[in-house]
Write a structure and sequence with these properties.
Strand content: 5-15%
Number of helices: 12
Largest sheet: 4 strands, antiparallel
Order of helices and strands: HHHHHEEHHEEHHHHH
Strand order of the largest sheet: 2-1-3-4
Structural class: alpha+beta
Number of strands: 4
Radius of gyration: 22 Å
């Protein structure tokens, strides 16, 4: 049996729309109350919450008063629980790695990661040694990845209060979709209201010719080679690339390719048009 708490019981009393409203962040001042609501929704179902809006950054998620919500709201204060203090956490932990390969909620136990659909990338990630070396910090948990604009990946955990449960897969079937829905709403709202999160200029639309040049540039082609492929002069190719850098506020070609990848103009499976 999943443990419950004395927190308000949302299940059966609120619709999905009402629960979503409880975690919808529209302004900075909403961050704390929405985090508390998510905590209560998870707690009454026997789960704790740990949120990370960006696995590539050590910046903690904070409320309008710059108070970290993982410690002050979710209660991660003990030694070994403050993963954000570990500079290489996103590199060695299998959890953020798994969130790079999956976009829907999935669950984890000592045997590995388990997604709704087959995902061979998750199957190849070993978790036993990690959990053993970290004293089974999260022995069983629901994990919610949130893939945001500009290539940002958020990794969020819902570990059990207790590991004494016979059917965790059943618990995931019951709560995985709900936690995924609510987490995506909260994280997307958080990112939209934080003024300190770097963004790409809004007016950065690229033309078809811009994208053609960028895709061949990302494939390692020189200006001369791109010109031959597109029947353009070398100077015209350079003109397009310089204009792309201006549109994306990129300091050089490498950054232009990176920013264009974040916006989805180019990628490993993009068709060269």
């Amino acid at each position: 049996m999943l443990q419950t708490s004395s927190s308000p019981h949302f299940e059966g009393e609120s619709s999905i729309d009402e629960l979503l409203e409880l975690v919808t962040i529209r302004r900075l001042e909403d961050i704390r109350s929405c985090a508390i609501n998510l905590r209560n929704i998870a707690q009454v179902r026997g789960f704790r919450v740990a949120l990370c809006s960006n696995i590539s950054s050590q910046m903690q998620m904070i409320d309008a008063d710059d108070v970290p919500i993982n410690t002050d709201v979710f209660g991660w204060t003990d030694d070994g629980q403050r993963w954000w203090e570990q500079s290489d956490y996103a590199l060695y932990s299998p959890v953020p790695r798994a969130c790079r390969y999956e976009c829907e909620a999935f669950w984890c136990d000592a045997n590995g990661f388990h997604a709704v659909r087959a995902n061979p990338y998750l199957d190849e990630i070993e978790v036993a040694d990690h959990f053993a070396s970290h004293n089974n910090r999260f022995p069983m948990e629901i994990i919610v990845p949130v893939h945001l604009p500009f290539g940002q990946i958020s990794a969020n955990n819902f570990p059990l209060f207790s590991d004494k449960i016979d059917d965790f897969e059943g618990a995931f079937a019951r709560y995985g979709f709900l936690f995924g829905l609510l987490t995506r709403r909260l994280i997307s709202g958080y990112v939209s209201v934080r003024p300190d999160i770097n963004r790409i200029p809004a007016n950065c639309g690229l033309s078809k010719r811009d994208v053609q040049c960028l895709r061949w540039l990302s494939a390692g082609k020189t200006d001369h080679e791109i010109g031959e492929l597109l029947s353009l002069s070398r100077s015209t190719v350079r003109y397009h690339i310089d204009r792309i850098c201006d549109k994306l506020s990129a300091v050089n070609r490498t950054q232009a390719v990176f920013k264009a990848s974040q916006l989805g103009y180019i990628g490993p499976f993009a068709r060269l048009i």
